[in-house]
Design goal:
four-stranded mixed β-sheet; globular; Znf_put; Zf-HC2 domain-containing protein; DinB/YfiT-like; transcription regulation; transcription
Length: 405
Amino acid sequence: MTSPATGTAEVAPEGELQDHRVLTSLLGAWALAACSPEETAAVEAHLTDCAPCAEEALRLRDAVGLLHAEDSLDLDPMLRSRVLEGCLNRRPARIPMPTWAAPYDAETARLDALLRDMADTEWRAPVRLRWFDGDRQTTRETTVAGVLGHLLAVDGLVASGIGLPDPLPANALPAGPDAGPQSRTEAYWALGEAGHQSPAAREPWREQSHAMIRDVSFLAAQDEADHEGGTGEGGTGEGTARGRLVSYGSFSLPLRDAFLDRAFECWMHAEDIAEAVDYPYGPPGPAHLNLLVDLAARQLPGALAARRRTGLAPPSRGLATAGAPGRTLHLEVEGEGGGDWYIPLDSPGSRASPEGKVAHIALDGLEFCQLAAGHVQPLEAAAGHDGDPQAIQDVLYATASLSRL
């Protein structure tokens, strides 16, 4: 608080630091790191119990980050995570967020920050969506609002999988194998609802993403209580990840991977939107990027098998025996968030190992993600490689085939 006469900081009496109005008035000073130690402790304790103040605190911290003119105006992708971590280190949340849901929380918050300040005309800016369909890149024209409608419709698969309302009305829902991301998006666009061409598209998407984070945290906490001692990793929600599947129509993903999938798509489409309105947009932080790269790498054996079943890739030249060692490709993803993955080439069930390596691919982490999003042609990816050329080509194409509308 400041004195009207002098403009100097006053320390609130200790009893007042329990009052909601006093604590709310301190949020601006807290965001600027201008509180006393006692006030800082009181504010941060309050943020763990008061959701409106926590939201306001994050908004103010974001605004403070924009005051540094010498820095990029693009928000630090890990700012939200660092603020929350600082608060939780002082007082752990009663209902912790699963670690695998954190990238979705961060990416939706970053996209929301971009959308918040856009002019009405920018919501109608044309956006070209790109993905890899079989053996070629496919594109689709929409608008910024249309992209958000797409995210809302496909996020609805995960939302309904954890008991939340589906954003599509029952009479518009595709059924069976056709109930996947593309058909849901087309059905939602056909409705022309939720401000398909206007800022009104933001609110239902924002409310749904917040509800997804809230409810999956409760589900994870309940599963941890029901399976106490099952993993030895309290608060990770791994029981929820293993025990629940989200249907994407023709395939399913564990809840853990579904949240990572939605985080990945949110990031990629946020870049599409930022490009459409000429705004700089950075990648996720290294820890979150590593989870997203890992998701794509873990899906490659299944993608390879699917391409072979449909005749888009030649049959395996090795022994496709479940559990047996087989031919392996070493995937090296460089840079922050990268690592090493060993991909079984003969069958998703065969065992990959460094000893069975027949090929090696090295890509930058962001280049790998752009390839997995279908934004880069497989044979045009900036990849270093050596070994079996057919295995290299198969994996590059399988990576691109992970993409979809």
